[in-house]
Amino acid sequence: MGDDLEKKLALSQARGKRLKKARAEAENLLELKSRELFEANQALESSQSRLEDDIKQATYELSVTNQRLQASLNDRSAFIGQMSHEVRTPLNAIIGLSEILLTSKLDNAQTDYIDTINSGARSLIVLLNDMLDITKIEAGRVDINPQPEDAHRVHKNIVAMFKLEAQQKGLTLEFRMDDTVPKRLSIDKGRYKQIINNLISNALKNTSQGGILLDVSYKNDVISKGMGMLTVKVVDTGSGIAEDQIERIFNAYEQIGRPDQGVGLGLAICQQLSELMMGKISCESKVGRGSIFELNLPVQELTGLGQSTAQRSNAKHSPLPSLKILIAEDNPTNQKVITAQLAQLGQQAEVTNNGAEAMAKLENNDYDVVILDILMPVMNGEETIKAIRSAKQATSQHYCIALTASSYQDQRDRLLRLGFDAFLSKPLSLSQLSDALHEVPRTLWVDSDFGHNFIDSSGTKEIISAAHKDKSPSFDFSYLKTQFGDAHKSIFKEIAPTFLDHAYRELVELKAFSERANTEKVRSISHSMKGAASSIGLTHLANALMQIESKSGSSDVSTHIADVDQIMRELKPLIQHELDALL
């Protein structure tokens, strides 16, 4: 009995020891696991902290990158805007004065030359506008505006633009239009010409022998009445494109071929424009055997509906009443152009140099139309329209037209919201000006009677004279000859005196502001002088002025101003000699 009790006690004690040992081991294990969990949590917190730091660093770097990208985009936008302004000033003179020449006595060849010049300048405007809104094209926010157009004339002008370049390369440039093509089509001529111009230009770049063919045909849509498919093929005998590269040529920023042939935007833009016009562009090519680019575009055929380009051209010369017009424009060349255009429409105008002068005129006179340039010294166009609309009743009701180098729709809308009644974009064509004047409400005319004081067309015609056959002049007329042909001296006679007077006054101001280190005024005046010099073909002077404009804020420009002064001293007697000879 006692032995059994002792055995039970011993077993109980052994069991107690085992439980105590198991509890100690469990406690140790729990402590170990707790420590491991704590360390894991510490590592997780550390990792999370590092991740947060990495995210903050990545966010900061992304922000810096975005800022740099935005700055780059802003710089590109500013550069394109500046270039747009630079190009529009001489184009304004080319388009405006060539349109005036088209109304004068010219033989068929001269008419064709001037018409080609005018068409080429207009195509430059289209390309310039496309360069300005390239981001809109890439974003698919470009508006397509079909208008009635003379299909034969559109394609004839396209081919004429490239004839000289083809001849200079020893290439043939043929044009074939099928009889099925309607005379009039509803099409966005600017966008359409951009596509075809790009295709022909590319063909000329990549063809060294043989030639290029522009083939145009049309097929009626049997289901949709009045609709059809316009098919345009540009065929060349050039170097061709490898089959595995054909798909890549329509990718933006991807250039196939030599690196000096562009940045690879042209065909990408062509494809996007064709898609926006519900069309399709494709390419077939063999290396060494040339290429065929084909554009298929759905268009509307016009029979008795709508006006053709030629009809609209005639309509723009329909009689206008004799209007009282006030112009505020600081550039003397642009002043000449717009007053000459108004003369073609039977109108005369008072011209002021800025908004302040215009306001002084408006205080004592009534006008049917007030045309305000947006960028002017003293008081710009935006400041002037605000002053007009806040003035007394008689002044505030004037019909005001904005004149600006920008063609953006948002710019147009913004100016109209400021109080302008209409919007005109430079370069200003005669048809645009005529259309704008026809839109002036008759109830606003100072004198509602139709006037008969139109300038006799012979007055313009007589300025083109073949009688003056003097020996070759010392002044370089090459630029004016390329722009105005036989009429270049009559145009020179009109523009040169204004150029001399204004340029010398601006030169005095340029020197004065340079001495005062007023970089803003130096840049503004040199920019104005450069535009005027470019319009008259004085490339050397324009280049010297460009040096002043570009370096006005970063370095001493006295040397460049001295160069301009010397050039002006040499030019003055040459210009005056030519003017004396033309009197």
What keyword list fits this structure?
3 domains, seven-stranded mixed beta sheet, elongated, Four Helix Bundle (Hemerythrin (Met), subunit A), Heat Shock Protein 90, Rossmann fold, five-stranded parallel beta sheet, alpha/beta, single chain
Largest sheet: 7 strands, mixed
Number of DSSP strands? Answer: 12
Radius of gyration: 36 Å
- Mean pLDDT equals 78
Q: CATH homologous superfamily of the largest domain - what is it?
A: Histidine kinase-like ATPase, C-terminal domain
Work out the count of structural domains: 3
The CATH architecture of the largest domain is 2-Layer Sandwich
How would you sum up the global shape? elongated
CATH class of the largest domain: Alpha Beta
Tally the helices: what do you get?
Answer: 19
What's the end-to-end separation, in Å? Answer: 156 Å
- Contiguous runs where pLDDT drops below 50 for at least 5 residues: 258-263, 304-317, 447-473
How much strand? 5-15%
> What do we call the CATH topology of the largest domain?
Heat Shock Protein 90
Percentage of residues assigned to helices = 55-70%
Q: Output the structural class.
A: alpha/beta
